[in-house]
Amino acid sequence: MLNSPPDAIDTSLVRRVLLTKLRHHGDVLLASPAFTVLRHALPGAEIDALVYRETACMLEGHPAIAHLHTIDREWKRSGMWRQARAERALLHALSDRRFDLIVHLTEHPRGAWLARLLRPRYAVARELPAAHWLWRTSFTHYYRLPRARPRHTVECNLDALRRLGLRPTDSDRALVLVPGKGERARAKALITEHRLEPRRFIVLHPGSRWLFKTWTPERYAALIERIVSDGWRLVLTGAPDPRERELVAATLSPLSTRARSALADLSGQLTLRELAALIGEARAFVGVDSAPMHIAAAMQVPVVALFGPSGEVEWGPWRVAHRIVASSAHPCRPCGIDGCGGGKLSECLSTLPAERVYGALCEILGETGSASP
Q1: Counts of helices then strands in the chain (DSSP H, E)
Q2: How far is CA 103 from CA 1, 34, 122, 170, 233, in A?
Q3: Are 286 and 357 in contact (CB under 8 A)?
Q4: Confidence of residue 239 (pLDDT cuts 50, 70, 90)
Q5: CA distance 242 to 203
Q6: What's phi and psi for 282, nearest 5 deg?
Q7: Are 304 and 361 in contact (CB under 8 A)?
Q8: pTM of the entire predicted model
Q9: How far is 117 from 50, CA to CA, in rounded Å?
Q10: If I label 93, which of 24, 65, 206, 325 is the partner at 20 to 30 A Cα–Cα?
């Protein structure tokens, strides 16, 4: 192939691939296009995934994945001997697959050990100039990321494949999330139970795994009042985590009777795959930089995303109609810090006015179809 790297892999020698993504739910979902690219670039190969057990739901049902291997974070808390047995069983399962290629998409040191222990013909990981010798000597290929300017995380993942000489096509770059039959049935049942109509309601997910990336309850409440005043039904979702439940409760507290009657509170009641099925039936999604925001993008539902300390260039809604709402009055953002000064409250986010978010929602609704229910 013209302009291929001189050490591009021989695709005819690759029969099994292991792609690892040892991060959180959203990170794993943003790696889903890499499996599609591998399937098309290596049509005769089987492609496996290795992720943390709690994030496997992001890849279940992916048509390009042959086997889904998982690591349970609880192993380290179950005692030395149980952890050793679990790790040994995982290593045996991976060894039995006889991988020809390992694609390691995080900086987790486990990738270096797997490359050494499984001994694939090829192994690729990110180039880390200051890395330990183990990292610098464990892989056959190292991919580079831009130093001066960021790029979206999906493209960063695909850079690992470009380094091998595998070229992503435009159609291969889409996020892939496939709710199962049970999850879709659960979503439809909830829609019926709460007297909602498909494409006639908006999902608002106020929380995040990291609360310094969330807005304030008062502004969420003001936004809800504006949305329901236009005649929209609204579904409020959130994780069962006590901190998120507290955020939802504080959001609901000041609402008027009219707003409460137009709202279905499903926070803490849905798995992530059920949430995906529900979002797939919605007219739009509003939320912050979080896994549910990426889920909405994967389900091709218009997104309004609020960004504060994290960067929308790297983490924005991928390949979906969207609006980003971010502060222009804080030149320090995106800083990547857990709140201003590490104080857990991000002023660039908490000071965003509800009118801006409402205006962004009206824009995206008008752009993608009817702006009224």
Answers
A1: 15, 12
A2: 21, 10, 9, 20, 44
A3: yes
A4: very high
A5: 20
A6: -85, 165
A7: yes
A8: 0.96
A9: 15
A10: 24
Q: Which amino acid does the sequence have at 172? A: D
User: Alpha-carbon distance 152 to 150, whole Å?
Assistant: 7
Q: Which pair of structure tokens corresponds to residue 146? A: 């831009």
Angle subtended at Cα 273 by Cα 294 and Cα 185, rounded to the nearest 5 degrees: 130
Q: How far apart are alpha carbons 94 and 305 in whole angstroms?
A: 38
CB atoms within 10 A of CB 207: 26
Residue 79 Cα to chain centre, angstroms: 31
Rounded CA gap, 173 and 167, in Å?
11
Residue 2: the pLDDT is: 67
CB-based contacts of 318: which residues, under 8 Å, 6+ apart? Answer: 30, 152, 154, 175, 294, 297, 298
> Under 8 Å CB-to-CB from 19, ≥6 apart: which residues?
31, 34, 35, 38, 47, 48, 49, 50, 102, 103, 105
